[in-house]
Design brief:
globular, binds FE2/S2 (inorganic) cluster
């Protein structure tokens, strides 16, 4: 007989209780509906149920930013959000940033132009986070960009080039230590 103290998740991993919850999302501009166990994170839904493996699982507990996606245009760590909480929301992942004709988002192009990645594992989260950062409008200089991107870790240490790429798209005045890619406005 199961008691209140019995764990819902066994050591062998989550077991479905049969109490799946129907949810609907707009994923990269397309409707997506599914019945999902209530403990499934948005990250696992995206990767394991929607084949959006551009979203990366790093720490799985809100420390690295690799899982960053846009929810209604705002950046969220998808590993920290239950999929059922996102019901009805518009979600954009790295796969949804390019235009329909394949033209890259300016941030994607800037990351290429500035060699802003090495292994690339953190890159989808970095770019999604940067896309939201620009929309937020709080970054006024390079140091702001560095600070407001601090939730996204890059273990390869590509930070300088990542910042260069974002600053380039924002058309902020480069500081002396970075290689200017454009004439200052
Ligand atoms: Fe979500 Fe690290 S995987 S913050
Ligand atoms: Fe490798 Fe960022 S490019 S972790």
């Amino acid at each position: 007989m199961q008691t209140q103290a019995d764990p819902v998740v066994s050591q062998a991993g989550p077991a479905s209780t049969g109490a799946r919850i129907p949810i609907w999302l707009e994923l990269n501009g397309r409707p997506f509906d599914i019945e999902i166990d209530p403990w499934v994170t948005l990250l696992d839904l995206l990767r394991e149920h929607a084949d959006l493996t551009g979203v990366k699982k790093g720490c799985d507990h809100g420390q690295c930013g690799a899982c960053t996606v846009l929810l209604e245009g705002k950046r969220v760590n998808s590993c920290l959000m239950l999929a059922v909480v996102a019901d009805g929301a518009k979600i954009t992942t790295i796969e949804g940033l390019a235009a329909a004709d394949g033209t890259l988002d300016p941030l994607q192009q800037a990351f290429i132009d500035h060699d802003a990645f090495q292994c690339g594992y953190c890159t989808p989260g970095q770019i999604c986070s940067a896309r939201a950062l620009i929309s937020e409008g709080r970054a006024k200089c390079r140091d702001d960009v560095r600070q407001l991107m601090s939730g996204n870790l890059c273990r390869c240490g590509a930070y300088s080039n990542i910042t260069d790429a974002i600053v380039d798209v924002m058309q902020l005045r480069p500081q002396p230590q970075s290689q200017p890619r454009k004439a200052a406005p």
